[in-house]
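lol so apparently i was supposed to do this last week
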Amino acid sequence: MKIGVPKEIKNNENRVAMTPAGVISLKHAGHHVFVETEAGLGSGFTDEQYILAGAEIVSTAKEAWQQEMVMKVKEPLSEEYDYFYEGLILFTYLHLAAEPALTKALIDKKVVGIAYETVQLQNGSLPLLTPMSEVAGRMASQIGAQFLEKSKGGKGILLAGIPGVKRGKVTVIGGGVVGTNAAKIAAGLGADVTIMDLNPERLRQLDDIFGSSINTFMSNPLNIADALSESDLVIGAVLIPGAKAPKLVTEDMVKSMKDGSVIVDVAIDQGGIFETTDRITTHDNPTYVKHGVLHYAVANMPGAVPRTSTIGLTNVTVPYALQLANKGYQQACLDNSALLKGINTLDGYVTYKAVAESHQLDYASAEERLNS
Ligand SMILES: NC(=O)C1=CN([C@@H]2O[C@H](COP(=O)(O)OP(=O)(O)OC[C@H]3O[C@@H](n4cnc5c(N)ncnc54)[C@H](O)[C@@H]3O)[C@@H](O)[C@H]2O)C=CC1
Ligand SMILES: CC(=O)C(=O)O
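anyway here it is w/ NAI bound
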């Protein structure tokens, strides 16, 4: 199969969908990889390294997009929609529940859209989201701590406190991969950490992991409201796979926070869990202030640490790319139920229920379409 790897064009997105090591794996299996020139530079991979690995360097995005399968990191931006063509296999993060225009473009052009974030194993885990959630979770506490500094617009507190001065309070809503990693770093920084989840079993696991170094609470409107009014930093880390994020934090709850407090809404890529995170921010201009509270809502947080993130991402995506390339997407998805769940658009239909529901579009089963 011919596989294209375009350069990412989102603001400050320095990740790339394939490393030279990934190229070697695909070449070994008899495939051809076309990498747009300088696509890897932001992650520290030169064109020469790709050539040595066996890739062909192409000078334009158009040439990278002309291949049978295109691998990317972020969802295509509107200026990339013109590259879509019928039957193209697009393997990348898509976040379609929060992207109506992209959903329409993929359907209109009959693209086979396979979303990293909905590839799901039988135990419910999301293997192609996990490493980036680990990165974003760890970054969330680090970023929150920075924006609490006075010079950054925050209230001027140190999360760790000092002897004789109280510690900062961090509330993490959602105790999955992002939430656990955020809690780990916040607790490591010495903050007073509370984590909330809807799933009691998950709360038990978190209690086993962290012991008395964090507080666990059931996620409900009352507990969220109580925690918000006392928190210095609140991190949004909820996910309902494929669906738009639920707005769990109301505008009134945000108003109850003290001026200079900080919100980091990691779940913004699925629409965000705060009523006040009504826009996506960028690494260039990452925050805005609403009701005196700093809001950070960057949808590609791992793009800020591209070397770590690119290697972490491609460690998990390349084995799936090999299955798609070796067997063709139809057989690969029929043979592997995790990959089948990744298909969000096929033959002009939305094939992921939560996405169809988000946009009131007709749903078609990917399995039925593949077998028809
Ligand atoms: N902004 C960015 O750059 C990045 C964003 N993300 C996003 O972060 C979000 C979280 O991802 P993961 O932690 O990997 O998901 P996950 O599936 O590991 O965890 C989500 C957790 O939310 C919990 N949950 C569901 N409904 C809830 C509710 N009403 N209240 C409290 N908890 C609830 C679930 O029980 C689960 O434990 C996703 O939207 C993901 O796409 C991930 C990486 C980077
Ligand atoms: C998960 C995601 O959207 C990201 O890593 O940018």
